[in-house]
Design a protein that fits this description.
226 residues, mainly alpha, 2 domains, 11 helices
Length: 226
C-alpha cells in the first residue's frame, strides 16, 4: 500500500521532494532488510507480483529528475522534457523487464495472484479453482461483517478524494479502493478491508458530527443575538 499511495500521489500531481525522500528511503531500507530474510531472499527482484514497488521507485526517481529542472526551464519546455523523460524511462524499463522474463530470471504471476484479476475458475490451477476461499465475495458477506459501515465507509473514502485532499486522506481513499477491489475478488481477503472500512467510517461520521456542531453553534448564536 505504501507503493500504491506513492504511485497514486504522483499520478494525481502531488509529487514532492518530501514524497521522493520518504519513499526512496523506505523502499531502499525495507527491501535491503527483506532480502536478508532467508525465506524472502531476492524475491523482490525475481517475482513479477512483487515488482510494483520497484517500478514506483524507478518512476519516483524520474519525477525527481524532471522536478529538479523545473526552475531552469519554461513551463512549455518543462512539460516537453518531463514527457520525454517519462516515455524513455518507461520504455527502457519495459524492455529490461521483457528481456528478464524471457530469460526466466523473473517468474510469472502465481495462480493465486492471477485469480485476483481473472475469474477464479480460470487460473489454470485446479487447487486454486476449487477452494471456496478463493471464490468471489457475495454482497451479503459485506453486510454480515460490516453492517451499516457498508453505507458509511464509501462516503468517507470518497470524501477524502473530493474535500480537503491531503497525502493522508489520499492514502485512506487508495487503501479503501484497493482493498475493496481485492476483497471482492476473493472472499478470504475481506479481512483486508476491515481497517479501511473503520477509518473511512470514522471520517464520514466525524464530518457529520462537525457539521452538526457547526450548525448548532450557529443556531445558538442566532438565538442569543439580541
Amino acid at each position: 500500500m505504501i507503493g500504491v499511495h506513492a504511485g497514486v500521489s504522483m499520478l494525481a500531481g502531488r509529487f514532492s521532494f518530501k514524497l521522493w525522500r520518504s519513499y526512496s528511503i523506505f523502499y531502499a531500507l525495507g527491501t535491503a532488510a527483506a532480502t536478508r530474510v532467508p525465506v524472502v531472499g531476492m524475491m523482490p527482484f525475481q517475482s513479477m507480483e512483487q515488482m510494483g514497488p520497484l517500478f514506483v521507485f524507478f518512476m519516483c526517481q524520474l519525477y525527481a529528475v524532471s522536478e529538479s529542472r523545473r526552475k531552469t526551464l519554461s513551463d512549455r519546455e518543462y512539460e516537453t522534457f518531463r514527457k520525454r523523460l517519462t516515455s524513455v524511462g518507461v520504455g527502457v524499463a519495459a524492455v529490461i523487464i521483457g528481456a528478464l522474463i524471457q530469460s526466466g530470471k523473473i517468474g510469472p504471476l502465481s495462480a493465486r495472484v492471477r485469480g485476483l484479476f481473472v475469474p477464479h475458475t480460470r487460473t489454470g490451477n485446479p487447487l486454486v479453482d476449487s477452494v471456496a476461499e478463493h471464490q468471489a465475495t457475495q454482497g451479503d458477506v459485506y453486510v454480515k461483517y460490516f453492517h451499516f459501515n457498508v453505507l458509511t465507509a464509501p462516503c468517507g473514502a470518497f470524501a477524502c478524494l473530493l474535500f480537503r485532499r491531503t497525502d493522508a486522506r489520499v492514502f485512506v481513499a487508495s487503501y479503501f479502493l484497493v482493498s475493496w477491489y481485492f476483497s471482492s475478488k476473493m472472499v478470504r481477503l475481506v479481512l483486508l478491508l476491515a481497517p479501511a472500512v473503520a477509518v473511512s467510517t470514522g471520517i464520514a461520521l466525524g464530518a457529520v458530527i462537525e457539521w452538526v456542531a457547526a450548525e448548532a453553534a450557529t443556531f445558538a448564536e442566532i438565538r442569543l443575538d439580541p
